[in-house]
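Incident log, structure service

09:12 report received: a user says their structure output differs between two submissions of the same chain.
09:20 pulled the input from the user's history:
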Amino acid sequence: MPVGALTLAGIERAARDRLPPEIWDFIEGGSGAERTLAANRKMFERYALRPRTMVDVSACATGMNLLGGQLELPLGIAPMAYHRLVDPEGETATARAAGKAGALLVAGMFASRTLEEIAAAATGPLWLQLYWLRQRAALAALVERAEAAGFHALMLTVDAPRIGRRLRDLRNGFAIPPAIRAVNLDPALMAASHRATDGGSGIADHAREQFDPTLSWSDLAWLRERTRLPLVLKGILTAEDARLAVEHGVDAVLVSNHGGRQLDGALPALAALPDVVEAVPAELPVLFDGGVRTGADIAVALALGARAALVGRPALWGLATEGEAGVHRVLDLLREELEHTMALLGRPRLADLDRGVLAPWPTA
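09:34 re-ran on a clean worker, output below:
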């Protein structure tokens, strides 16, 4: 890890220096003009913290239970494809780091290591993310394998009937290199993702071929019939959809705009979080991702009602800089910063992080 990497921003700079420009753009880019991508971060600046004093903060407790899995901190790694784009070990290194840190790992459907390899490397809660494919047999086979391998929940991405217009990938004519594959799916199903064209994107071409845009609420019953695992919906941004998720019996929802990679101009995730929290029963976990870069960001999300926060790109920055140790450093920095924030807020338990922690940032 480079000297001076005391924050995620330092790790980000080191990762950018190490990765080829087209890989960096694939990881970092958003859709359209990247308004939502930028707004995810800017939203945190709207909140000031209200510290309380004369509180015993000699120990700050960050452990929690999430859908039956015990975590050492309210943090997870969001699903991302093709970890081997940045490190030869890929998802197995990420899994080991998450386990050592006591964090959740959500493995991506397009992982570049097998589900069984990832499960063997994991020592903590492990979920599998899914896209809704036209070929339901392939989807059903993945669900069966995940359950057999010991995954603890399924996370269905519901905000991607088609892939957002990611201009960086289009300008680069980006496609997944031949040596890196989504090894849990038939190569024929993934072929389009490897085809590079001028002004085109293999990622977009693949999604256009394989993602099923007819996905609707009634389809959840088909998935429920094929697994006993808890079901989490990723990509909920409105109270209306949150209520429908409850009606259809999901076990948790993730407030997310896909890291600003889908609809540009969509609500920043932090702006959507309070409405979603208010729309669901208190016992249903609401998770959050979108722009988390510090432990204080996690505290803000929890104060707004999230049960836990997920980070995406920072995990890949760590993986690119120092493999497993780099991912662990990212998670450890966030843990240190969260505990520090809780102590200085006078809120030594996660349950203490409520709306009273927050105030609007003063304007001039």
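09:41 both user submissions now match this output. Likely a transient worker issue. Closing.
09:42 reviewer note: The longest strand covers residues 231-236. The longest helix spans residues 313-345.
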